[in-house]
Amino acid sequence: MPFTLRKATLDDRPAIEDLIKLSARGLSRAEYSEQQIEGAIRTVFGVDSNLIEDGTYFVVESDGKLIGCGGWSKRRTLFGGDQYQTRDASELDPLTEPARIRAFFVHPEYARKGIARAILDACEGEAKAAGFRALELMATLPGIKFYEASGYHRSESVELSVGDGIAIGLAPMRKELS
């Protein structure tokens, strides 16, 4: 299946927001309840404008349709879109701190076709070129196997409140760059 990987622009924002919702609703059902998914969409899952403005967020298109997105960051925020209240946009020190892998979402009809892998390869290459020696991310439960297969090591899972007394499980993960 042919697809194109490119840097996201702020004009992509509405399509990215739609893709995030579609991906979360379509690919998370085996791991999260409907209430958890909707809570995460409302409070955490979303576009982080800093990533787009920094030029570190990618989108993947096929036949003019947005089918994947994801990026890396030189900023402290580990996860969460603009609506997530616990954010720190200060920059990381690449010599002593890991870059962040952020906000990967794939259209359910295009899952397991190399979309996320292409984005991750681009992110890892750019982070390494920027001087980072390691990467960290906060994986959703459906993403753990993908990241483990990509060389990331998991720490103990955590629970994140998504409102209304509901929480979702997440897994901190890390990879050293060679």
Sequence-ordered SSE layout with sheet pairings:
Elements: E1 4-7, H1 13-27, H2 34-43, H3 49-54, E2 57-62, E3 65-73, E4 99-106, H4 115-129, E5 134-140, H5 144-149, E6 153-154, E7 158-161, E8 167-176
Parallel strand pairs: 4-5
Antiparallel strand pairs: 1-2, 2-3, 3-4, 5-8, 6-8, 7-8
Helix pairs in contact: 1-2
The CATH superfamily bears the name Gcn5-related N-acetyltransferase (GNAT)
Q: What is the residue-mean pLDDT, rounded to a whole number? A: 96
Quote the distance from N terminus to C terminus.
31 Å
Radius of gyration: 15 Å
Q: And the CATH topology? A: Aminopeptidase
Task: Sum up the overall morphology in one term.
Answer: globular
CATH hierarchy, class: Alpha Beta
Following the backbone from N to C, one meets helices and strands in this order, namely EHHHEEEHEHEEE
What percent of the residues sit in helical stretches (DSSP H or I)?
Answer: 25-40%
> How many structural domains are formed by the residues?
1
Stretches where pLDDT falls below 50 for ≥5 residues? Answer: none
Largest beta-sheet characterization: 8 strands, mixed
**Beta content:** 25-35%
What class do helices, strands and sheet pairing give?
alpha+beta
From the 3D coordinates, which CATH architecture would you assign?
3-Layer(aba) Sandwich
